[in-house]
Amino acid sequence: MNFRRVMMLVNLGNEYLKVIINTKGAEVTSIKNDQNIEYIWQADSNFWGRHAPILFPIVGRLKDDQYEYDGKKYSMGQHGFAREMEFSVTKRTNDAVTMQLKSNASTFEMYPFHFTLTISYLLSGSKLKAEISVTNDGQNEMLFSVGAHPAFNVPLDNLSEKDYSEYYINVFPQRTYKQVPFKAPYIDLNNVSDIDLSKLLQLKHEIFYDDAKVIKINDKKLICRLGNKNFDHGVEVEANKPEYAGLWSAKNAPFVCLEPWWGVADDINADGILAHKNGIKHLLSEQTYNTNYSIEIF
Question: Domain limits at 288?
Fold first, then answer.
Protein backbone atom coordinates (compact mmCIF):
# COMPACT_ATOMS: atom_id res chain seq x y z
CA MET A 1 0.00 0.00 0.00
CA ASN A 2 1.17 3.52 -0.72
CA PHE A 3 0.95 4.96 2.78
CA ARG A 4 2.11 8.54 3.15
CA ARG A 5 5.35 8.66 5.12
CA VAL A 6 5.33 12.33 6.11
CA MET A 7 5.04 12.56 9.87
CA MET A 8 5.20 15.12 12.63
CA LEU A 9 5.82 14.88 16.36
CA VAL A 10 3.39 16.89 18.48
CA ASN A 11 4.54 17.94 21.95
CA LEU A 12 2.04 18.47 24.77
CA GLY A 13 2.90 19.59 28.27
CA ASN A 14 1.72 20.82 31.64
CA GLU A 15 3.33 21.06 35.08
CA TYR A 16 3.09 17.28 35.57
CA LEU A 17 3.69 15.64 32.20
CA LYS A 18 5.46 15.99 28.88
CA VAL A 19 3.90 13.94 26.08
CA ILE A 20 4.92 13.31 22.47
CA ILE A 21 2.42 12.07 19.88
CA ASN A 22 3.33 11.02 16.35
CA THR A 23 0.94 11.96 13.56
CA LYS A 24 1.76 8.57 12.04
CA GLY A 25 -0.92 6.43 13.63
CA ALA A 26 -1.81 9.15 16.18
CA GLU A 27 0.53 7.15 18.40
CA VAL A 28 1.73 8.27 21.83
CA THR A 29 5.51 7.81 21.77
CA SER A 30 6.56 9.35 25.08
CA ILE A 31 5.12 10.24 28.48
CA LYS A 32 7.55 11.74 30.98
CA ASN A 33 6.79 13.07 34.44
CA ASP A 34 8.32 16.11 36.14
CA GLN A 35 11.28 13.95 37.20
CA ASN A 36 11.94 13.07 33.54
CA ILE A 37 11.04 9.41 34.02
CA GLU A 38 9.90 7.82 30.75
CA TYR A 39 6.84 5.62 31.10
CA ILE A 40 6.22 4.61 27.48
CA TRP A 41 8.17 1.75 25.90
CA GLN A 42 10.66 3.22 23.44
CA ALA A 43 10.06 0.79 20.58
CA ASP A 44 13.25 -1.25 20.70
CA SER A 45 12.80 -3.38 17.58
CA ASN A 46 14.81 -6.20 19.17
CA PHE A 47 11.61 -6.85 21.13
CA TRP A 48 8.72 -4.84 19.65
CA GLY A 49 9.11 -1.76 17.49
CA ARG A 50 6.04 0.20 18.58
CA HIS A 51 4.94 2.41 21.49
CA ALA A 52 1.16 2.68 21.85
CA PRO A 53 -0.63 2.10 18.55
CA ILE A 54 -4.31 2.77 17.87
CA LEU A 55 -6.01 -0.35 16.49
CA PHE A 56 -8.55 0.17 13.69
CA PRO A 57 -10.65 -1.06 11.91
CA ILE A 58 -9.90 -4.45 13.50
CA VAL A 59 -8.35 -5.65 16.74
CA GLY A 60 -6.01 -8.61 16.53
CA ARG A 61 -5.64 -10.81 13.48
CA LEU A 62 -8.12 -11.95 10.87
CA LYS A 63 -8.15 -15.63 9.99
CA ASP A 64 -5.68 -15.98 7.10
CA ASP A 65 -5.41 -12.15 7.20
CA GLN A 66 -8.58 -11.76 5.17
CA TYR A 67 -12.34 -11.31 5.47
CA GLU A 68 -15.39 -11.31 3.25
CA TYR A 69 -17.87 -8.46 2.89
CA ASP A 70 -20.71 -8.21 0.37
CA GLY A 71 -19.39 -11.21 -1.53
CA LYS A 72 -15.85 -9.83 -1.94
CA LYS A 73 -12.68 -10.83 -0.11
CA TYR A 74 -10.31 -8.25 1.37
CA SER A 75 -6.86 -8.62 2.91
CA MET A 76 -5.78 -6.76 6.03
CA GLY A 77 -2.91 -7.23 8.48
CA GLN A 78 -2.98 -7.57 12.25
CA HIS A 79 -4.69 -4.72 14.14
CA GLY A 80 -5.74 -2.97 10.93
CA PHE A 81 -4.13 -0.11 9.04
CA ALA A 82 -4.62 3.03 11.16
CA ARG A 83 -1.33 2.56 13.00
CA GLU A 84 0.55 2.78 9.68
CA MET A 85 -1.19 5.86 8.29
CA GLU A 86 -0.65 9.59 8.56
CA PHE A 87 -3.25 11.52 10.54
CA SER A 88 -3.95 15.20 10.01
CA VAL A 89 -3.87 17.61 12.95
CA THR A 90 -7.21 19.41 13.10
CA LYS A 91 -6.83 21.18 16.45
CA ARG A 92 -3.91 21.87 18.74
CA THR A 93 -3.13 23.72 21.98
CA ASN A 94 -0.29 23.42 24.50
CA ASP A 95 -2.05 20.60 26.34
CA ALA A 96 -4.35 19.06 23.73
CA VAL A 97 -4.39 17.83 20.14
CA THR A 98 -6.95 16.30 17.80
CA MET A 99 -5.86 14.08 14.91
CA GLN A 100 -7.98 12.66 12.13
CA LEU A 101 -7.81 9.90 9.53
CA LYS A 102 -10.31 9.77 6.67
CA SER A 103 -10.97 6.93 4.28
CA ASN A 104 -9.03 7.21 1.03
CA ALA A 105 -7.90 5.23 -1.99
CA SER A 106 -5.42 3.21 0.11
CA THR A 107 -7.96 2.28 2.77
CA PHE A 108 -10.59 1.28 0.20
CA GLU A 109 -8.25 -1.45 -1.08
CA MET A 110 -8.45 -3.09 2.36
CA TYR A 111 -11.73 -1.81 3.78
CA PRO A 112 -14.76 -0.76 1.69
CA PHE A 113 -16.23 1.79 4.10
CA HIS A 114 -16.20 5.59 4.15
CA PHE A 115 -15.15 6.73 7.61
CA THR A 116 -13.55 9.39 9.77
CA LEU A 117 -11.42 8.21 12.71
CA THR A 118 -10.74 10.99 15.22
CA ILE A 119 -8.30 10.68 18.13
CA SER A 120 -8.20 13.53 20.66
CA TYR A 121 -5.62 13.75 23.44
CA LEU A 122 -5.91 16.07 26.44
CA LEU A 123 -3.63 16.53 29.45
CA SER A 124 -5.48 16.85 32.75
CA GLY A 125 -3.12 17.00 35.71
CA SER A 126 -1.11 13.77 35.75
CA LYS A 127 -3.51 12.08 33.31
CA LEU A 128 -3.49 11.84 29.50
CA LYS A 129 -7.06 11.45 28.26
CA ALA A 130 -7.76 9.90 24.85
CA GLU A 131 -11.10 10.23 23.07
CA ILE A 132 -11.77 7.91 20.13
CA SER A 133 -14.53 8.72 17.64
CA VAL A 134 -15.53 6.72 14.57
CA THR A 135 -17.96 8.29 12.09
CA ASN A 136 -19.67 6.41 9.28
CA ASP A 137 -19.42 8.77 6.29
CA GLY A 138 -20.98 6.29 3.87
CA GLN A 139 -24.51 5.23 2.99
CA ASN A 140 -24.21 1.62 4.16
CA GLU A 141 -23.90 0.23 7.66
CA MET A 142 -20.24 0.22 8.70
CA LEU A 143 -18.51 -2.70 10.45
CA PHE A 144 -15.45 -2.08 12.62
CA SER A 145 -13.56 -2.63 15.86
CA VAL A 146 -11.18 -0.31 17.68
CA GLY A 147 -8.61 -0.58 20.44
CA ALA A 148 -5.55 0.88 22.15
CA HIS A 149 -2.20 -0.85 22.68
CA PRO A 150 -0.08 1.24 25.10
CA ALA A 151 3.20 -0.32 26.25
CA PHE A 152 4.94 0.70 29.47
CA ASN A 153 8.54 0.31 30.59
CA VAL A 154 9.22 -2.32 33.23
CA PRO A 155 10.99 -1.27 35.32
CA LEU A 156 9.37 2.16 35.14
CA ASP A 157 12.44 3.85 36.59
CA ASN A 158 15.10 3.28 33.96
CA LEU A 159 17.82 4.31 36.43
CA SER A 160 17.04 1.46 38.81
CA GLU A 161 18.04 -2.17 38.95
CA LYS A 162 14.54 -3.29 39.91
CA ASP A 163 13.51 -6.59 38.42
CA TYR A 164 10.52 -7.28 36.14
CA SER A 165 9.10 -9.69 38.69
CA GLU A 166 8.89 -6.96 41.35
CA TYR A 167 6.04 -5.37 39.40
CA TYR A 168 2.38 -6.26 39.48
CA ILE A 169 -0.83 -5.65 37.55
CA ASN A 170 -3.98 -4.90 39.49
CA VAL A 171 -7.31 -5.02 37.63
CA PHE A 172 -10.42 -3.24 38.90
CA PRO A 173 -13.11 -4.29 39.60
CA GLN A 174 -11.19 -6.99 41.47
CA ARG A 175 -12.94 -10.28 40.73
CA THR A 176 -12.80 -13.45 38.67
CA TYR A 177 -12.97 -12.82 34.91
CA LYS A 178 -13.37 -15.02 31.86
CA GLN A 179 -10.07 -15.55 30.05
CA VAL A 180 -10.18 -16.27 26.32
CA PRO A 181 -7.17 -18.42 25.35
CA PHE A 182 -4.97 -17.79 22.34
CA LYS A 183 -4.12 -20.40 19.79
CA ALA A 184 -1.84 -17.78 18.32
CA PRO A 185 -2.68 -15.66 16.50
CA TYR A 186 -6.39 -16.43 17.02
CA ILE A 187 -8.63 -16.84 20.05
CA ASP A 188 -10.37 -20.05 21.05
CA LEU A 189 -13.89 -19.34 22.30
CA ASN A 190 -14.53 -23.03 22.95
CA ASN A 191 -11.99 -23.14 25.78
CA VAL A 192 -12.76 -20.08 27.89
CA SER A 193 -11.60 -20.40 31.51
CA ASP A 194 -11.64 -18.39 34.73
CA ILE A 195 -8.80 -16.09 35.77
CA ASP A 196 -8.72 -14.83 39.35
CA LEU A 197 -7.91 -11.12 39.32
CA SER A 198 -9.29 -10.43 42.78
CA LYS A 199 -5.67 -10.01 43.89
CA LEU A 200 -2.44 -8.72 42.40
CA LEU A 201 -1.07 -10.42 39.29
CA GLN A 202 2.68 -10.53 39.88
CA LEU A 203 4.59 -10.05 36.64
CA LYS A 204 6.74 -12.84 35.29
CA HIS A 205 8.03 -13.12 31.75
CA GLU A 206 6.66 -16.66 31.57
CA ILE A 207 3.10 -15.33 31.81
CA PHE A 208 3.33 -14.15 28.20
CA TYR A 209 5.22 -17.06 26.63
CA ASP A 210 1.94 -18.28 25.14
CA ASP A 211 1.01 -14.76 23.93
CA ALA A 212 -1.46 -12.25 25.38
CA LYS A 213 -3.83 -12.77 28.27
CA VAL A 214 -7.25 -11.84 26.84
CA ILE A 215 -9.88 -11.02 29.44
CA LYS A 216 -13.59 -10.64 28.77
CA ILE A 217 -14.87 -7.45 30.42
CA ASN A 218 -18.50 -6.90 31.40
CA ASP A 219 -18.12 -3.71 33.44
CA LYS A 220 -18.84 -0.09 32.58
CA LYS A 221 -15.32 0.88 33.54
CA LEU A 222 -12.03 -1.01 33.55
CA ILE A 223 -8.91 0.04 35.44
CA CYS A 224 -5.54 -1.70 34.98
CA ARG A 225 -2.78 -0.57 37.32
CA LEU A 226 0.93 -1.28 36.87
CA GLY A 227 2.95 -0.78 40.03
CA ASN A 228 5.59 -1.95 42.46
CA LYS A 229 5.00 -2.37 46.18
CA ASN A 230 8.42 -0.88 46.96
CA PHE A 231 8.44 1.86 44.32
CA ASP A 232 6.67 5.21 44.11
CA HIS A 233 5.94 5.33 40.40
CA GLY A 234 3.15 3.58 38.55
CA VAL A 235 0.68 3.76 35.69
CA GLU A 236 -3.08 3.36 35.60
CA VAL A 237 -5.05 2.75 32.40
CA GLU A 238 -8.77 3.42 32.64
CA ALA A 239 -11.20 2.59 29.83
CA ASN A 240 -14.88 3.15 29.12
CA LYS A 241 -16.84 -0.07 28.56
CA PRO A 242 -14.18 -2.12 26.78
CA GLU A 243 -15.35 -5.55 25.69
CA TYR A 244 -11.94 -7.08 26.27
CA ALA A 245 -8.63 -6.26 27.91
CA GLY A 246 -5.31 -7.53 26.62
CA LEU A 247 -2.24 -7.99 28.82
CA TRP A 248 0.85 -8.66 26.72
CA SER A 249 4.60 -8.48 26.42
CA ALA A 250 7.08 -9.78 23.87
CA LYS A 251 9.20 -12.69 25.07
CA ASN A 252 11.52 -11.61 27.91
CA ALA A 253 10.99 -7.94 27.01
CA PRO A 254 11.26 -5.12 29.59
CA PHE A 255 7.75 -3.79 29.05
CA VAL A 256 4.10 -4.71 29.45
CA CYS A 257 1.04 -3.63 27.48
CA LEU A 258 -2.26 -2.77 29.18
CA GLU A 259 -4.74 -2.78 26.29
CA PRO A 260 -8.43 -1.81 26.23
CA TRP A 261 -10.17 -3.39 23.25
CA TRP A 262 -13.57 -2.74 21.73
CA GLY A 263 -13.20 -5.86 19.58
CA VAL A 264 -10.98 -8.95 19.47
CA ALA A 265 -9.02 -11.25 17.14
CA ASP A 266 -10.78 -13.87 15.04
CA ASP A 267 -11.77 -17.15 16.63
CA ILE A 268 -10.01 -20.27 15.33
CA ASN A 269 -13.35 -21.35 13.85
CA ALA A 270 -14.26 -17.99 12.29
CA ASP A 271 -16.00 -18.24 8.92
CA GLY A 272 -14.35 -15.08 7.58
CA ILE A 273 -17.58 -13.12 7.12
CA LEU A 274 -16.96 -9.67 8.60
CA ALA A 275 -20.52 -9.29 9.89
CA HIS A 276 -20.10 -12.54 11.86
CA LYS A 277 -16.81 -11.51 13.47
CA ASN A 278 -16.76 -11.68 17.25
CA GLY A 279 -16.78 -8.19 18.78
CA ILE A 280 -17.52 -6.37 15.50
CA LYS A 281 -19.49 -3.14 15.81
CA HIS A 282 -22.29 -2.00 13.50
CA LEU A 283 -22.59 1.73 12.81
CA LEU A 284 -25.39 3.27 10.76
CA SER A 285 -24.84 5.90 8.08
CA GLU A 286 -23.86 9.34 9.43
CA GLN A 287 -23.68 8.02 13.00
CA THR A 288 -20.67 8.36 15.32
CA TYR A 289 -19.33 5.87 17.85
CA ASN A 290 -17.46 7.35 20.81
CA THR A 291 -15.31 5.78 23.48
CA ASN A 292 -12.32 6.77 25.58
CA TYR A 293 -9.44 5.67 27.73
CA SER A 294 -6.81 7.42 29.83
CA ILE A 295 -3.28 6.91 31.11
CA GLU A 296 -2.57 8.30 34.57
CA ILE A 297 0.90 8.54 36.07
CA PHE A 298 1.45 8.24 39.81
Answer: 9-297
Q: How many C-beta neighbours within 10 Å does residue 291 have? A: 19
Q: What global pTM score does this model have?
A: 0.95
Residue 151 lies in a domain: yes
Digit-coded pLDDT (tens) for 95-145: 999 999 999 999 999 999 999 999 999 999 999 999 999 999 999 999 999
- Domain of 39: which CATH number? 2.70.98.10
Mean of the per-residue pLDDT values of the chain: 95
Q: Of 30, 35, 1, 63, whose CA–CA distance to 264 is shortest?
A: 63
